[in-house]
Amino acid sequence: MEAEAIGTFDVKLAPIDSGPSPIGSLSIDKIFHGDLQGTSAGQMLAFRSDVEGSAGYVAMERVTASLAGREGAFTLQHSGLMDKGSPSLTVIVVPDSGTDGLAGLTGTMNIVVTPGRHDYQFRYILPD
After folding, report:
1. What is the C-alpha to C-alpha distance for residues 8 and 31, in angstroms, rounded to an integer?
2. CATH of the domain at 102
């Protein structure tokens, strides 16, 4: 049965030297609050076009956390686009990336960014 975890997270993005490439690289560090409690570390690749509001990014993020009273780790894969200011984002658990109490975890995460705040809604299935 699908379950839902909601909460907020703090995020720190830091540039990684990518030389003269038009593709930027950033490190990701997060702290999750709410139904998902833990931290994550990851890496993002991003490109911003010359057209205002158009860009894209991909990222991989390893989450170490507790969820529904179980502890372990899993990996999230991000794919995001901005098309002249219109956003689309897919964040999904990488299949078979869950460990320990989170082994077998599947799901998708919706992220809502408002000024000064990052919220998540994580819809997931966790085997018994």
Report:
1. 9
2. 2.40.350.10
DSSP state of 101: G
Q: What is the mean pLDDT of residues 11-26?
A: 92
**Rounded Cα gap, residues 102 and 90, in angstroms:** 21
E-strand stretches of 1-128: 3-16, 24-34, 36-48, 55-67, 70-83, 86-93, 106-114, 117-125
Angle (nearest 5°) at CA 112 between 47 and 121: 120
Candidates 108, 41, 113; CA nearest to 78 is: 108
User: What is the domain extent for residue 32?
Assistant: 3-125
Listed in sequence order, the residues at least 6 apart from 31 whose beta carbon sits closer than 8 Å to its beta carbon are 9, 10, 38, 39
Q: What is the DSSP letter of 88?
A: E
Q: pTM above 0.90?
A: yes
Place of tokens 């720190």: 12
Number of domains composing the chain: 1
For the record, the structure tokens of 52 come out as 């205002």
Q: What percent of the chain has pLDDT over 90?
A: 92
